[in-house]
Amino acid sequence: MADKHPNNNLKRSIGFGSAISIVIGTIIGSGIFFKQVSVLDSAGSSTMAIIAWIFGGLITLTGGLTIAEIGAQMPYTGGLYVYIENLYGRICGFMAGWMQIIVYGPAIIASVAGFMSILMANFFGLGRNWSIPLAIVTVIAIGLLNFLENKVGAVFSVITTIVKMIPIAAIVICGIFWGHQDALGQTISQVNQSTGGFGVAVLATLFAYDGWILIANLGGEIKNPQKLLPKAIILGISSVLVIYTLVTIGIFRFLPVGLIHRLGENTTAYLATKVFGTIGGKLLSAGIIISMMGTLNGKMLTFPRIVYAMARRGDLPFSKYLSYVTPKGKSPVVATLFIIVLAAIMMMFFKPDHLSDLCVFTVYCFYLLAFFGIFILRKKNKTRPFSTPLYPLVPIVAILGGLFVLISELINDPAGVLLFIGIVIVGLPIFYVVKRMDRKRLK
């Protein structure tokens, strides 16, 4: 059997500052700018929408606290893939990896690119029919960027993380200090009956909070991961919770909820122009687009490496090709192309808002398994580098939050849920076929 932890060849060079920047930079992307309308419509009022953002952040934080204890005991490259395999065995580990490369990864890339293309179309004065072509071209361009050496993508991530704080600070400051609306108490007189209520509002926020666990994929490259990984996860999520709450208050202070409801996905572009004028609005929109590109770059950097890791172990069809890396840059180019193709297909058949909910549902199926794993590890290991505070209350809240996500989405979109679950389950026979072929080759 191949080595479970191939990170032994990787250099532990990521310090605390870089780790927390990765957590914050990976989380903050399109969600906070484009999910405001979905959250508001489902919640029905500005007060409940703000509560939904806080509630989603607390669910995410309890999950982060739980995973922090698990990750400190398994400081290896691979994150969720490694945790599930160590806790539940080889097949469950494969399914966690399969889910990330076939459903979750492509879906979240397609969703972020889809949201970003809406803003790009507005920025360049193009019609909505340009959204999908713009999204596909952007994903291909960022994918090509990741064909180069890792340091190129790393520099791009640092620049975009800095840039993304500019529009966030602008919205918060201008909204809170110069807005004339009441952030609390505004209600929408007409809300679509299909929006789903407070549960779906919280589900929408979880897409905006998602991405924090991707730092665990770099566990083998973090200095002193037993201490730094938990700190980066906890402080990173806590910071984002505060930022998202302030951004939401800033938006509600500046725009009445009825107008936000009517503007829909164009709210961000309208707000930027309204606050800073035509030129200032363009610059702010450009900052938000660059912010989303940074998020997209982080995901394009991460998910192909899961494909590569699984292919190195011979877990996938055509593993020989999917595990190919360039001789100089050591980039998994075939795996990257694989993710690009899947993301492009999803863009053509699903709306970004729909994809975002489904990818959150899918990954939370495996988050739940990981959350339960903390009880398994507590029985096995009496000493731990990091202990989740308020145990077992925090893990229980994380589990209840996960169940809340699954039930809410199942009620709201049973057809989409069944489709994505079906795609994940297809991985099981593929695993057995690939392993059977491997055994035949060895005979």
Automatic annotation (TrEMBL):
Its main location: membrane. It is found in: Membrane. One of its GO terms (molecular function) is L-amino acid transmembrane transporter activity. The chain crosses the membrane at residues 12-34, 46-68, 101-124, 130-148, 155-178, 198-220, 232-255, 275-296, 332-349, 355-377, 389-408, 414-434. It is a multi-pass membrane protein. Gene3D superfamilies: Amino acid/polyamine transporter I. InterPro entries: AA/rel_permease1, AminoAcid_Transporter. It comes from the Bacteria. Keywords: Membrane, Transmembrane, Transmembrane helix. PANTHER family: AMINO ACID TRANSPORTER (PTHR11785), SOBREMESA, ISOFORM B (PTHR11785:SF512). This is Serine/threonine exchanger SteT. The lineage of its organism: Bacteria, Bacillati, Bacillota, Bacilli, Lactobacillales.
